[in-house]
Amino acid sequence: MPSAEGMTLVTAKLVMGLGCERDTAPEEVIALAEQALAHAGVSGRDVALVASLDARAEEPAIHAVARHFSVPPRFFDAATLEAQSPRLKNPSKVVFAHTGCHGVAEGAALSGAGSDAVLLVPKIRSARATVAIAGPADFARGTLR
Known about the structure:
Elements: E1 14-20, H1 26-40, E2 47-53, H2 60-69, E3 73-76, H3 78-82, H4 93-99, H5 105-113, E4 117-125, E5 129-136
Parallel strand pairs: 1-2, 2-3
Antiparallel strand pairs: 1-5, 4-5
Helix pairs in contact: 1-2
């Protein structure tokens, strides 16, 4: 699809990984997600899906973020997230003790984005949540791939 003059066309290719404590306020996670996007210099239109640990599949805050960006949520088991351990920027023994994986937000973002993906925003945190963003290494705003 050609680009119209003066318009920027971007296909959604980013995966936002989310981690949170049970019953975290959706507003807290949404605010952190927006902060991560700003840090990356991208917008919610660039997000293809949100991802998290399957133990959080019923967590209202995760679903609120998915609705906020109008994307589907996807949930991975701990073994799938743990397989991303060598690629994590912020592995945590504490997280492993609680979840069975060394990183929820980063692991979920990488799992959802695929084997060639890189962390564009390593884990950032608020009081009760974490967010990371992964996508293609060659992701560039304004480029159709």
